[in-house]
Amino acid sequence: MKKNPYIPFDYKYFKIAVILIFVIIVAGISYLLYYDPILSYKIKDFNAYKEDFEVIKDVAERQRQNTDREYFCIGINYIDGKSVMTLYLDDSERIELNDEEQKSLDRIESIFKRFDAIHVYKNKITFDSTNLYSIIYSENGRSPKTQVINGEEVKIITIRISTHWFHAAYRQ
């Protein structure tokens, strides 16, 4: 094949370069549109830990019955190498756990990258980490759309795990 003197490069390589650039652009746009922040922190096998979450959810519900507040926080702290739950109302108060509850809390703590608090609301309980990922228990089974963070309502992305449980990540 004779080279065209007016085209200073091989057209075959030009087509390959254009196709490659197109593929890179499409892949980049797809990543930006469909990247799910939940996937980077998601607990892989929730069902293996579901019973532990149920035990600690029951502890949180027990605390809710002892207060008239619609919202409160239970902090996860570490004292003497052991996970402890601290109820934050007007004053901080350590929540005493039995052996089963302590084992469940330790197992939950071990699967989160940074487990720091349980937020108890009127209709849901969130198990939160500092990396914008949560496991949410919804009493009515509806997927939560927002979460209050530092007094501000923030949109969240959820993936249903079971009837009442959801993976959640905060939209930034």
Structural summary, described in words:
With 172 residues, the chain is of the alpha+beta class. It has two domains: 1-35; 38-170, no CATH class. Helices cover 36% and strands 33% of the residues. It has helices spanning 11-34, 37-41, 46-65, 99-111; strands at 72-79, 82-88, 92-95, 115-120, 124-129, 133-138, 146-149, 152-160, 165-170. It has a nine-stranded antiparallel beta sheet. A hairpin with a 3-residue loop joins strand 2 (82-88) and strand 3 (92-95). The mean pLDDT is 82.
Topology, please?
Blueprint: H1 11-34, H2 37-41, H3 46-65, E1 72-79, E2 82-88, E3 92-95, H4 99-111, E4 115-120, E5 124-129, E6 133-138, E7 146-149, E8 152-160, E9 165-170
Antiparallel strand pairs: 1-2, 1-4, 2-3, 4-5, 5-6, 6-9, 7-8, 8-9
Helix pairs in contact: 3-4
